[in-house]
Amino acid sequence: MPVVFSPLQKQVLSLYRTALRSIRQKPPSAQAAFRKLYRHAFRTRAREYSKRDIAAVEHLLRQGRRWVEVMQGQGVRGVAVGLEVERWWNEEGRRDWWTAREEKAEEEDGKQ
């Protein structure tokens, strides 16, 4: 059965996709840092706030739109990620669906 998202969830996902797509316009040397920064920002806030707290989600959505708009600007050519983001990336950020899927495939290949 397909997942049904609320209109607010669709807006958040749309903002996330917009942020990730904007990375393509940045220099190749800076793209990994932008990816880490965006993923950290979205995933940590998703854990901090309840999906049912509509006022907070709407506030974060407005903040996020402004932030992504600023980051998309031509003047922003790179970002520096802090220790918190690096720590998160090394502990949790890489453990996304694709990484877990690739690791599982590698394990299966190793067993054969």
TrEMBL record:
InterPro entries: Complex1_LYR_dom, Complex1_LYR_SDHAF1_LYRM8. Residues 10-66 form the Complex 1 LYR protein domain. GO terms for biological process: mitochondrial respiratory chain complex II assembly. It is found in: Mitochondrion matrix. It comes from the Eukaryota. GO terms for cellular component: mitochondrial matrix. Keywords: Chaperone, Mitochondrion. Signal peptide: none annotated. Its main location: mitochondrion. The keyword Transport does not apply. Belongs to the complex I LYR family. SDHAF1 subfamily. PANTHER family: LYR MOTIF-CONTAINING PROTEIN 2, SUCCINATE DEHYDROGENASE ASSEMBLY FACTOR 1, MITOCHONDRIAL. This is Complex 1 LYR protein domain-containing protein. It comes from Dacryopinax primogenitus (strain DJM 731) (Brown rot fungus).
